[in-house]
Amino acid sequence: MGLPEHVAIIMDGNGRWAQKRGLPRNLGHKRGVDRVEEIVKAARAKNIRALTLFAFSTENWTRPKSEIRILFLYLYDFLRKKKDIFHKQNIRVRFIGRKDRLPKKLQKEIAAVEAEPLLADSLVVNVALDYGGRYDIVNAARILAVRAARKDIRPEQIDEAEFSSCLSLYGLPEPDLLIRTSGEQRVSNFLLWQLAYAEFYFTDCLWPDFGQAQFEKALRLYSLRERRFGTISSGKKGEK
Fold first, then answer.
1. In what order do the strands lie in the sheet with 91-96?
2. Cβ atoms of residues 76 and 109 within 8 Å
3. Quick one: 220 exposed, middle or buried, by C-beta within 10 A (0-12, 13-18, 19+)?
4. Domain residue extents for the chain
5. What CA–CA distance (Å, rounded) separates 213 from 57?
6. Which of the residues 26, 34, 60, 136 is marked catalytic?
7. Quick check: helix, strand or coil at residue 25?
8. What is residue 233's predicted lDDT score, i.e. its pLDDT?
9. How far is the C-alpha of 123 from the C-alpha of 45, rounded, in Å?
10. In whole angstroms, what is the distance from residue 126 CA to residue 78 CA?
11. CA geometry: angle 56, 60, 65, nearest 5 deg
């Protein structure tokens, strides 16, 4: 089947990685943020068009405030140090989700990162931050409701394509492959609309240990699958 155009990853297991080693959870988050660079470079080397990383969900606000604050600090430092490197490598970082609830300092750094031009051959890295799939869908419905109230669009004109154009990943192919680390096997309110026909790959590997070798294994297993999109199987079988 070849390689996916778009890979989405639920980066799970930072806290458990730290706890297994008798370390504070915060160090697990630091190791997890550092791991991102390796996977981004691996995706670039494989000519993947888009990589979407689930960094912080709308539900994660229930975590201890101190943990959230340090996680955002790690992310801020990562962007500040790596944005020029990514720019030189033609990697463009974009953010999906609510930005208004993030620390002002982080919002400013995000704005600087997103100001970089997007070229035709760029690897687009979408960081889902304060993101929820249900919020994404509700927000799209809200946008269409406003357009309908203004008579910019008639209700009968609203179809899947029109709805998709109001979602956060508009303009990119939908994810072909979803990877989730840490052994959990659920989507956790991530890209609920966009993952409709994605292939899923679950691994027990915790995110801080998920490196290039594990990423390439997921890509290899994906390439052996047959995507049918509701059609009849060709009868070809891949390895397990």
1. 91-96, 123-131, 50-57, 6-10, 177-180, 199-202
2. yes
3. exposed
4. 6-131+174-223
5. 27
6. 60
7. helix
8. 61
9. 10
10. 15
11. 105
Give the three-class secondary structure for 175: coil
- Residues 65 and 82: their CA atoms lie apart, in Å, by 26
CATH 3.40.1180.10 matches 6-131+174-223: yes
> Residue with structure tokens 């939908």?
174
Other CB atoms within 10 A of residue 194 CB: 23
Verify whether residue 130 is a known catalytic residue.
no
Tokens describing residue 214: 């594990």
Amino acid letter at 21?
R
Give the active site residue among 12, 130, 136, 176: 12
Question: For the chain, how far is it from start to end, CA to CA, in angstroms?
Answer: 14
Active site annotation includes 60: yes
Q: How many CB atoms lie within 10 A of CB 8?
A: 27
Please give the Cα distance from 205 to 208 (Å, whole number): 8
Per-residue pLDDT 10s for the chain (240 aa) are: 799 999 999 999 999 999 999 999 999 999 999 999 999 999 999 999 999 999 999 999 999 999 999 999 999 999 999 999 999 999 999 999 999 999 999 999 999 999 988 887 889 999 999 999 999 999 999 999 999 999 999 999 999 999 999 999 999 999 999 999 999 999 999 999 999 999 999 999 999 999 999 999 999 999 999 876 666 666 655 443
CB hemisphere CA count around 73 (13 angstroms): 9
